[in-house]
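Input (structure):
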């Protein structure tokens, strides 16, 4: 062999010329390149690079799996039919690895599915190298489980991307470089509609505030992550004109509070916050920031919860966490499950329900404060919310301050009632009160209805439900007898 052919640059030029002369024949049907690849080791790599540079679909790659090779390349002249894969078992884990290993040898810009619209790439960190094979220019929706260098390529090669979600495992630790890469990649995305990811830097938030297409933002912080703080020099952002849903699931609320304090969401309809620890002072800051984000007329759903109480705050008596939210007069659902932050009594409950006349589902739970709402206070407030169908509160069900037989008020829309974090002294009397005043409540929700709840007084409320069932059954039998007598 001539020594000139040992120079890779010369060899590549020669093979490229051969490739051009074969016209537009797809890979796998270029006999000259195939022959060159089989000639010797020196020719193999450059010939294979050109042979696989332009794929006619995914079938040639599947042919690299031994089990499928005989189906895709049958002996004789029998052509491959469109239904060749009918009845073929899916790839095993080993075969899928074989397939991806061969696919990874393709040129960097090669996409195996050029018209792919949706991708869920849930893999281990070491397998992220395959992501580039799926980055279609038509890709609209993408779900990833790792942050890797290909993330920037996702934004540049998938200009049509509208929905991006990063589902990072709880145990996966993220470095500062990972967070920087994520923020830079988000800043390259121009058409996002929904975004679910780890905390971003302030430059990324600034970019998002200027995206008119953006409707939903969700920030989730892995519990193993180190605390993430925003830049020191923070300025107010442009209004998020069309964002309707905003949620944070974080270790502490400091990050979310900073974002809320410098942002406006004039179209916001749903806000959710879940924090491992939410001290009383931070809960008040969060609610105040939410009340000042220009969403008083649009916000309809609020959900704020914390998992772990801070015992040292047991002396906190602030009421502002709840009262900061009374400005939202169009609320349909409110869920507040906090610690040492909701000191609910009859007067505050009356103020809450008078401020939220359209409310349909209301949960005000604080297991660290003694119950102060009585049946009289509850029934005084209920008429102000005629559409309420679900209620979960902490109340004093021991001290009965009404006469169930003399009570004339009935709330006919409430169907789901949860009082099981409250103690009960007389289960029969409580059941009679509920039976007469709340006729559509068939039973009090218990542990069976809240698989993840800690129900302290389970047995007492089971007893209430037994009496309630008896009253309901007796009423049905009584009405049947009355109807029979009337017909007679």
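Output (sequence):
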């Amino acid at each position: 062999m001539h020594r000139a052919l040992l120079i890779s640059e010369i060899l590549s030029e020669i093979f490229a010329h051969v490739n051009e002369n074969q016209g537009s024949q797809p890979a796998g049907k270029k006999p000259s390149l195939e022959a060159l690849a089989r000639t010797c080791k020196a020719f193999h790599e450059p010939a294979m690079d050109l042979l696989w540079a332009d794929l006619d679909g995914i079938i040639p790659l599947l042919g690299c799996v031994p089990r499928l090779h005989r189906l895709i390349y049958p002996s004789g002249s029998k052509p491959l039919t469109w239904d060749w894969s009918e009845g073929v078992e899916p790839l095993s884990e080993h075969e899928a690895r074989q397939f991806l290993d061969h696919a990874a040898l393709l040129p960097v810009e090669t996409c195996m599915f050029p018209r792919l619209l949706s991708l869920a790439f849930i893999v281990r960190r070491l397998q992220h190298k395959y992501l580039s094979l799926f980055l279609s220019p038509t890709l609209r929706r993408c779900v990833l489980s790792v942050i890797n260098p290909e993330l920037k390529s996702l934004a540049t090669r998938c200009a049509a991307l509208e929905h991006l979600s990063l589902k990072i495992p709880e145990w996966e630790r993220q470095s500062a470089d990972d967070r920087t890469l994520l923020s830079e990649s988000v800043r390259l995305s121009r058409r996002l509609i929904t975004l679910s990811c780890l905390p971003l830097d302030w430059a990324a938030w600034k970019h998002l505030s200027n995206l008119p297409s953006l409707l939903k933002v969700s920030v989730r912080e892995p519990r193993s992550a180190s605390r993430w703080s925003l830049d020191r020099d923070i300025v107010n952002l442009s209004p998020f004109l069309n964002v309707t849903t905003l949620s944070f699931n974080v270790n502490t609320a400091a990050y979310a509070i900073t974002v809320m304090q410098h942002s406006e969401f004039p179209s916001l309809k749903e806000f959710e916050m879940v924090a491992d620890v939410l001290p009383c002072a931070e809960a008040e800051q969060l609610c105040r920031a939410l009340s000042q984000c220009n969403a008083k007329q649009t916000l309809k759903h609020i959900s704020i919860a914390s998992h772990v109480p801070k015992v040292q705050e047991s002396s906190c008596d602030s009421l502002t966490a709840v009262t900061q939210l009374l400005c939202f007069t169009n609320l349909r659902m409110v869920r507040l499950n906090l610690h040492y932050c909701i000191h609910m009594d009859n007067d505050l409950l009356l103020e809450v329900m008078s401020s939220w006349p359209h409310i349909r589902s209301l949960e005000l739970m604080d297991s660290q404060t003694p119950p102060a709402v009585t049946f009289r206070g509850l029934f005084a407030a209920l008429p102000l919310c005629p559409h309420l169908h679900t209620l979960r509160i902490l109340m004093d069900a021991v001290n009965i301050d009404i006469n169930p037989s003399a009570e004339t008020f009935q709330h006919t829309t409430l169907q789901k009632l949860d009082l099981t974090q409250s103690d009960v002294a007389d289960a029969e009397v409580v059941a009679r009160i509920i039976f007469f005043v709340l006729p559509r409540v068939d039973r009090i929700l218990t542990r069976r209805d809240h698989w993840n709840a800690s129900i302290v007084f389970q047995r007492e409320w089971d007893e209430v439900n037994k009496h309630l069932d008896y009253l309901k059954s007796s009423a049905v039998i009584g009405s049947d007898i009355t109807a029979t007598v009337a017909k007679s």
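Notes: The chain has a mean pLDDT of 83. The chain has 16 helices and twelve strands.
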